Amino acid sequence: MGHHPEVTNRIATIIKTQKGKCNLCGLHFREGDIMEVDHIIPTSLGGKDEYKNLQLLHRHCHQNKSSFDGSHDASKRATRKAE
Ligand SMILES: [Zn+2]
Questions:
Q1: What is the pLDDT of residue 52?
Q2: What residue spans define the domains of the chain?
Q3: Contacts of 60 (CB under 8 A, 6+ apart)
């Protein structure tokens, strides 16, 4: 309640496939961690919006990755956060 079910389901599915760990640093997500859905291949580089191209990262890990994966764009990052 108060959540967006679709977003929650999507994140829950990804968490399960990653066994509750961040794909970048390998640490378990904990209560209160800020998580973001990341496109493994950035959509700006032709990546698709589907599960096999999605991973869940800590926000700080996501920002680290975004600085070298070709999707370095502050305005895009802001919209992706809402996914
Ligand atoms: Zn992480």
A1: 93
A2: 27-82
A3: 34
Task: State in Å: Cα 32 to ligand 1 middle.
Answer: 13
Which pair of tokens denotes residue 72?
């370095």
What is the maximum alpha-carbon separation in the chain?
37
> Residues lining ligand 1 (ion), CB within 5 A?
22, 24-25, 58, 61
pTM of the model: 0.70
pLDDT digit string, tens, across residues 32-72:
999 999 999 989 999 999 999 999 999 999 999 878 766 65
Q: What's the 56 CA to ligand 1 centre distance in angstroms?
A: 9
Q: Are 31 and 38 in contact (CB under 8 A)?
A: no
